[in-house]
Amino acid sequence: MNIVFKNDFFKGNRQKLRAAIGNKAPIVITASGLLQRGADAAYPFHQDANFWYLTGIDIPDVVLVMGSKADFLILPKRSNYQDIFEGTIDQNELIETSGVTSILSNEVGWQKLREDLEHQKQVATIKPAPIYLETYGMFTNPARQQLLKRILTGNRKIAVQDISIDVARLRMVKQDIEVEAIQLAIDITGAAINKVQASISGLTHEYSVEAIITAHFLDNKVNNAWKPIVASGHNACTMHYNDNFSPLLPSDLVMIDIGAEVSHYAADITRTLIIGHKPTARQRDVYQAVLEVQDFAINLQKPGALISDNEKRTRKFMATKLSELGLIKRASESEISRYFPHATSHFLGLEPHDTGDYGQTLQPGVVLTVEPGIYIPEENIGIRIEDDVLITLKGNKVLSSNLSRDLL
Ligand SMILES: [Mn+2]
Questions:
Q1: How many Å lie between the centroid of ligand 1 and the Cα of residue 399?
Q2: How many angstroms separate the alpha carbon of residue 127 from the centre of ligand 1?
Q3: What is the Å distance from ligand 1's center to 353 Cα?
Q4: How far is CA 162 from the centre of its chain?
Q5: Which residues have C-beta under 5 Å from ligand 1, the single-atom ion?
């Protein structure tokens, strides 16, 4: 299942971006490139979300130029090997998808761009990420770095304007069709969780849950937006656990954090289920606490509110719950984060952790998650409940409200 994005959407996004940056500097944006996994194998290609948002194109290494006179796309250099093994690029399809009518070869396109840049004082692009991100321990895609290098080779003196925040602010406020795609992703994700819930007592391993989810997504012709997190018992206390090889033990809880991806837009939902038995009183109490924190946090999401203020208030409320559960004595951040180590909310859209401006107040059209959790490794309890919330004119709408939050 998918939602068709016509080229009006991408044209509109380009116009909005032009208006937002407030000058006429050429805007040059690159697609992601393929990354080598080993020998002649690449990691699965994932398009740069900003590039997709402005063009709808899913091909590596294409460059979008919103020039001082006209917009055009520059095709990547292609080898015979690529043409034979991956097929040729259909230029008419690129025009139809993006609404950009001028498609140029690598050589002609770059010559045209260089000639334009020679007469410009400024060029706008999305800043390259650092080569390595220390916090996450990962290398970044070098496509933007390469693009910038090539731009500067043509004109060493040109000033580079980083428009990351402008694109982020546009992407943060969803248009109706984007909400439609997210809603469909949520509905498919919810149905997958219901399937798991219905058969959980007969399942033996975490991967049995993953298999049901993935089969349901494929039946609907969509993919996982990330490898499902199916974390039972103690595993649920490791935030990004997704080995999914542990057995499901009766009377353990299992946390399922998944999302389907529909037409590039992700859902992000977490439910925590009990395996095989009735929950213990303690499991029920912790679950109830997370539910109450989630209700509290959802009520805070409305136009004019700041995510950071909502976070502070939610953590304060969480502290009272953690103290009622006998887990903490003082409401200090270090005590709270022992049992609730992550943030309550993030933006949701083209990326599960979507881009946006966390410094701006919430406004209608913003979609974000609300996902408090309590993790107690010493008791084999990890509980998170996550729903997806759309900010509306008057408050918010929980897009995943059809999916039950009952433990049993
Ligand atoms: Mn999430």
A1: 14
A2: 25
A3: 7
A4: 21
A5: 268, 369
Read off the pLDDT of each residue in 99-124 and give the average, rounded to a whole number: 95
99 alpha carbon to ligand 1 midpoint, in Å? 33
- Report the separation in Å between the CA atom of 150 and the middle of ligand 1, taken as the mean of its atom positions: 37
Please write the tens of the pLDDT for every residue from 250-287. 989 999 999 999 999 999 999 999 998 799 999 999 99
Q: Which CATH number fits domain 173-398: 3.40.50.10490, 3.90.550.10, 3.40.50.360, 3.90.230.10?
A: 3.90.230.10
> Could you tell me the residue ranges of all domains in the chain?
7-171, 173-398
Q: Please tell me the distance between residue 369's alpha carbon and the centre of ligand 1 in angstroms.
A: 6
Is the Cβ–Cβ distance between 249 and 275 less than 8 Å?
yes
Q: How confident is the model at residue 80 (pLDDT cuts 50, 70, 90)?
A: confident
Q: Could you tell me which of 283, 310, 304 has the C-alpha nearest to residue 370? A: 310
Q: How far is the CA of 74 from the centre of ligand 1 (A)?
A: 35
CA distance 141 to 130: 9
Helix, strand, or coil (residue 130):
coil
- By three-state DSSP, how is residue 245 classified? coil
Tens digits of residue pLDDT in 147-200 = 999 999 988 999 999 999 999 999 999 999 999 999 999 999 999 999 999 999
The CATH number assigned to the domain with range 7-171 reads 3.40.350.10
pTM over 0.85: yes
